[in-house]
Amino acid sequence: MRILIDTDVIMDFLMKRGSFSDDAEKMIAFCMREGIQGAVAAHTIPNLFYILRTHYTKEERRDVLLKLCKMFMVVGIDANKLESALCNTAFSDFEDCLQMECAKDFEADFIVTRNVKDFLASPIPVIEPTELVRRLA
Known about the structure:
This protein is an alpha/beta fold and 137 residues long. Helices cover 55% and strands 12% of the residues. The protein has helices at 7-15, 20-33, 44-51, 58-71, 79-87, 94-106, 129-136, and strands at residues 2-5, 37-41, 73-75, 110-112, 126-127. The chain has a 5-stranded parallel β-sheet with strand order 3-2-1-4-5, with helices on both faces.
């Protein structure tokens, strides 16, 4: 199975956000031990570097994000993905559309996110971490 993990799920994991972090941790553990191929979109990394500034020092953010880059494949963004996302009016959120473009390029079986409603126009099936963990357990 190949999954693209949305930024919100990585944030749950790194920021230990309440009950959401349990499923994020389990899902990431599946990726590390169970042969699930996980990926993140390239723009997730700079977004996290900025978002995590209130939880981690600059040095800690660099270390955490370097580890993330080694744990998962990082799917790049190029002109074709940007143009496709900019022309896609079915998505109300440009960043989510870029996530979907990266998932297509990665040939993901699922996009894993807690914001399922934001991906209704995605040709790639979308699943919440809770549901993925339930299916894999």
